[in-house]
Structures are given as C-alpha cells and as structure tokens.
Amino acid sequence: MNSPVGIYLSVPFCKAKCSFCNFASDAFGTARMDAYVDRLCREIAGSRETAERRGAMLPREADSVYFGGGTPSLLSADQFRRIFASLRGAFDLADDAEMTLECAPGQLAEETLEELLRQGVNRVSLGVQSFVDREAQAVGRLHTRAMCESEITRLQRAGVREVGLDLIAGLPHQTEESWKISLEAALATGVTHVSVYMLEVDEESRLGREVIAGGSRYGAASVPSEDEAVAWYEAGCDLLNVGGLLQYEISNFAREGHRSRHNIKYWRRLPYIGFGLDAHSMLPQGGDAVRFQNVDDLDTYMSDDATGPLAVLPQGKAPEPERIDREAAFEESLFLGLRLVEGVSLDALREQFGEAMVASVMPSVAEVSEAGLLAMEGERIRLTARGRMASNEVFSRLLIPTAV
Ligand code: SF4
Fold this sequence. Notes:
Layout: E1 5-11, H1 30-45, H2 47-53, E2 61-69, H3 77-90, E3 92-103, H4 110-119, E4 123-129, H5 133-138, H6 145-158, E5 162-169, H7 176-189, E6 193-198, H8 206-213, H9 226-242, E7 246-249, E8 252-254, H10 261-268, E9 272-275, E10 280-285, E11 288-293, H11 298-302, H12 304-307, E12 322-324, H13 326-339, E13 344-345, H14 346-353, H15 355-370, E14 374-377, E15 380-383, H16 385-389, H17 391-397
Parallel strand pairs: 1-2, 1-9, 2-3, 3-4, 4-5, 5-6
Antiparallel strand pairs: 6-8, 7-8, 10-11, 11-12, 13-15, 14-15
Helix pairs in contact: 1-3, 3-4, 7-9, 14-15
The structure holds iron/sulfur cluster.
C-alpha cells in the first residue's frame, strides 16, 4: 500500500433530518458547528501521532479529499479555510488531488462555493434522491426539482469540474414511471456521475422503523415493495448505461473518465484516513493493514476530557482497531473488488496472497458461477447483473472455508 492516502472528513450537520436517513447526522446550531471544526482541525493536526499509536503508516501525500456528511456544504467559507489550512499542514495535497464536497441542493452559500473553488475543490456530489417533488418532500428533503436543476447549472457554470448526484430507489410514493422521470432528469442535466442506492429499511431511521413496525406518519404505507425497488433499480442501471453513465460499481455510474478516485480507494483497499464523527480509516501496518473508526456520539467526540487535545479516539469508547491479517485481507480484496463491474483478477490475487489461498475459494467460485451470480472470463471473475443484486449472498458463499 505505497499509495497516497485518501482523506475523508465527516461533517454531521444537516438543516433537517430526512426520514430515511440512518447516518450519524443531525440538525445543530452554528456554534456547535464552529466548535466541531476546531475539534476536526485538532484531530487532523494529531493524525501522525494517532497513526503511530496504531503502529500504522500514514502517507504524507494525499490525492483525494472527501467532505461527507451530513451536509458539509453548510460550513462557512472561513470554516473551510481553517480545515484546509490544517490539511495542508499535515499532508502534501497532490496538485491533481480530487476534492469532493457532498452538498444538499440550495444549501451552499456563494461565498463558500468561491472559497471551495480557491482551495481546489473540483467535485460536488448533490443529494437529490428524487427529481419528483412529492417524493422528495415526503422524506423531508428541502428542495424541488427546479432547485436541483438550477443548482446543477450554477455549479457547472461556476467551474466545478465534476458535478454528480445521488438517487434512491424505493422512496415513498415512487412508481415505475416516477423512477424513470428521476433517471431521465438526471441524464438531462449532463452530470458526470450518479450514485443509485436502494432505500435502506432498518431501525436506524424514522421511516425504516415505521416500515418495520407499521404506521403512516412518515409514508411507510407508500413505500414500494422490495421486489419493485429491485426491478426499478435494475431498469435504472440499463437506462443510465444507455445514456452514457456507465456502471462501474454496484451503486455508481460515471461518464468515461469521471469515476470517483476517492471511493475507488475503498474498493481497491488503498489507504484512507477519516476525520470527524464516526469516520473510518484503513492504513498500512507492517505487511498487513489496520482499520479503526471514531466514535459515533457527538458529545463524546467533542469532549477533550475524553480525548486529549491531539487524540483521535476517545479511548475505550470507540470499537477497538482491527488488524487485517493476510486471510482477512484476501477476503476483503475479493469482496470489495467484486463490487466493481470490472471484477477481480485471480492472477493478481495469486501474486499477492499465493496459490493456496485462491485455490481454497475456487470450489465456491465455481458453484456461485453455476448459480448465475458470478461470471468467469479468463482469469477475471465479476458479479453478473443478478449477482450485483444479491452481492451479500455471493460474498457469504465465497468466505474462505477454513484457515489456509
Ligand atoms: S440524508 Fe443527508 S441531508 Fe438528509 S439527514 Fe441524512 S445526511 Fe442529512
């Protein structure tokens, strides 16, 4: 892992909480945001000390920076200036670094946008979720289709090199026709990147809890069935591919040459470090790697008593760092690599992990291929379209049977 590091910054603030959202984010006042930025800057400044404590190697060069959230576009120009000063103090940002900002339509001040462009931000990912106003409003989004379209035009005209957007299949009130409207609207904007997610139904969101327990306050009764959402998702993949946004990962589509460098690091197991609430990191450690994550409770994260001024992790409150040994690294390479449409090179796996490790999963690979979920092409394996919809099942069937 002698690659430059990718940097993720978590900004867990939103204007309002969307009903489907299961992230560690919420609506807070501006004073909290300012204190959070200070905390983030201290964490960045202490990152080398943190890596050392983990016995991990933290590359000095960084070639991607990703502000995720939450709604990081709510930060002010001055707050971004402080964060970038900290980043430039702790890392050498590559001249061609990819720098991405997640943004909610209508929630990026002009002064902030100008500062971000000065700092080198070249990608904006807009949380559109749906171009159909009724669907967006039902889940608490604060924008309309018209606002999304004018935001995209504004960003393109301002010189943001890459403008992308997110969509969700399975929202309340969504139908086959309305889903198609969102996809066609996305294509018509000329964005270079689209991420498509399925609505996640779990106990972590208001809508998810209502779908599980029943009720009508958040529109659970209007949520389409999982089978419908899967069918629309598959149709959406075809429509985007035909429109020139080519699928390169289970949830991600890009025009030629516009894939997300930062997100590809996750799937290729390249080093990344996360700062802020609930941020995750993976760094080289000897011949292996170590994964660690920050706490997901804002008060704990903010508490210097718990952390010390330069510490990243409130000791004893975040999950223990996880050392990724050779066997775990092999499984990760296989499963994360299979998320990419190009799949995984068995020769590359053999070179990195040895023949015995690869041979140990080949019977399962053959079995899953026969079931039509995996395709073997020469020395590469990749998920089929059906396999992409059942990726968790595929991964569990490919687990190494016993230690090699
Ligand atoms: S979906 Fe995005 S904007 Fe909505 S609450 Fe979650 S993080 Fe905030």
